[in-house]
Amino acid sequence: MSHTTRVLKSEWTKVRSVHSTIWTLAAAVVVSIGLGALICAVTASTFDDMSTVSRRTFDATFTSFAGMSLGQLAMIAFGVLVVSAEYSTGMIRNSLAAVPQRGTFLWCKVLVAGPLVLVVGLITSFCTFFLGQALLGEHGVGIGDPGVLRAVVGGGLYMALIALFAVGITFVLRSPLLAFAILMPFFFLVSNILGSVEATKKVGQYLPDQAGTTVMSVVPEALDRPYGPWEGLLIMAAWTAAALIAGFIVLKKRDA
Amino acid sequence: MIELRDLTKRYGDKTAVDGLSFTVRPGTVTGFLGPNGAGKSTTMRMVLGLDAPTRGDVRIEGKRYGELKEPLNSIGALLEAKGVHGGRSAYNHLLCMAQSNGIPERRVGEVLEMVGLHDVARKRPKGFSLGMGQRLGIASALLGDPRILMFDEPVNGLDPEGIHWIRTLMQHLAREGRTVFVSSHLMSEMAQTAEHLIVIGQGKLLADTSMSQFIAENSRTHVRVRTPEPERLLDVLTTEGLRPAAGTRGALEVDGGDAARIGELAAAHRIVLHELSPQRASLEEAFMRLTAQSVEYHGHAPGGAQAPPEGAQVPPGAPQPPPEGPQAPPEGLQAPPGGAQAPPGIPQAPPPGTGQAPPPAGTQGPPPEGPAWGEDWQRRRRR
């Protein structure tokens, strides 16, 4: 068995053997689907009261993903805890004593957490889409409609990328408190404000989540971004890669 | 074998470890001794490649730590902090450590059995006592059946049964031919476990010597004699081949002398004696003298002993000046040795260092002369 395979197995044992994994990931699924369903139900019942413009640019797919704005916070919590638990418990000393090749250690953690959050993200986006469309009834769309499948798969990728972004940032910050205090308000409020307010929109729309959400929209007019859906996801992926590389540099350079 | 060469660690302008060079050899328990803050833990973290040295390097069986693909099979360590996720069961904690080093899963059960934690293997360490946490740390050190074991303050906070267990374990591991490197800030603890001794203070190497040599050099006895006719006594003793030296307040100190013989000599020459007392410096005091100038924080012990003499940092092998520092309780008033485990002749002195309480009343030597413990050191610092 190669060195990398062994470290991957070890990291998988770590992830599956703590309760926080199941709680955060379950919260991401439940909150995203639940809130998405609620918003779809409300939208369906008030659809006729909406303005003509709103009705014309109505994006049924995007609406069913509304719960993800809250559900992503649980994904971020998962990403933060996977890394910060090493530091807050002192486990990092044991981990690095067992695997002194710090690059292998970090990338194996990412390789274990990544597929896990991708699977959970895809389950979330497909469930929330189908439930949302069912609730929207006649206003809903089908998975075969143009751009819809891309949006649903993109929703899963979005959830995975936001968790990995948190992994990278936490490798830089190390402390769970600091990571939560920065990431949670940022993705819950700050980035939404920066991405919506006219004055800051020009820059704000390039923030990881603002760019990433584009992939989930099917009606371009709804978001009005200067880049397409895949480009948006690519911008987010670049942010995630940058965060992970920064985390890698900090892990490599600093004393454990 | 662990080899340190010129190992140095600086944090800003503070030097935590200062040019340490020594070798830890297999087959014996090597004690790593120093006051709190001397740099023991930093050194051990550098041995494990956790902290990068500012200068110098460490070799584990001739290799750098980072070159080891399966380090747990070469060196197992128990570090000061428990380093265990409170929510991950003891079994899974050991399992993830084992998997990363290709250690078979059955070994996890074996080490849990070895340290006596098999009953709580599936429990979360959150609820573990200090002793159980320490045992889990030792289990993880033993996982890879390594040739080198390193323990940072393993007896800290343990009950007597746990202390005895760890001591026996370390000696057993050394007898199997392994390298056992264990840190402590208590001389009394080391005296009962280690055969070799490495003493550091403020990051610098103070001694690298065998325990028996350290005892021979540092627990030397001398006899204090006080007389109104010091010149005559001096003549008599010198003629008899004894080596008296001037002590404090006009007393004479006879290194390695026998109190009975000195008394008989004085009587034969009709010399009046005001005091005739055998003195013995404990290992704890020897350690205090050795490290006195390198202790970071001093507590004041009311009625404590004298400040250590200048030049206390005598390299091993050099003749030690007769102990004139802290007064050991006279023979007979001493506390009983700590059971059968204590090597003969090592009095169980109270632990030295910061904030220590004065020895119990009745066992104290003559009233202190000169400045209290630490005052002299502080004066030197101000200069």
Written overview of the protein:
The complex is a heterodimer of chains A (256) and B (383). Chain A has 256 residues and is mainly alpha-helical. Chain A has helices at 3-16, 19-46, 52-56, 60-64, 68-89, 91-98, 102-136, 148-173, 176-196, 198-204, 208-212, 220-223, 229-253. Chain A has one domain. Chain A is 80% helix and 0% strand. In chain A, helix 5 packs antiparallel against helix 9 and helix 8 runs parallel beside helix 13 (229-253). The two termini of chain A are 27 Å apart. Among the domains of chain B are: 2-23 and 35-173, 3-Layer(aba) Sandwich (Rossmann fold), CATH 3.40.50; 221-280, Alpha-Beta Plaits, CATH 3.30.70.1510. In chain B, the strands form three sheets. In chain B, strands 5-6-7-3-8-9 form a six-stranded mixed sheet, with helices on both faces. A four-stranded antiparallel sheet of chain B has the order 11-12-10-13, with helices on one face. In chain B, strands 2-1-4 form a three-stranded antiparallel sheet, with helices on one face. Chain B is elongated. The two termini of chain B are 42 Å apart. Mean pLDDT of chain B is 79; it is low at 303-383. Chains A and B meet through helix 1 and helix 6 of A and helix 2 of B.
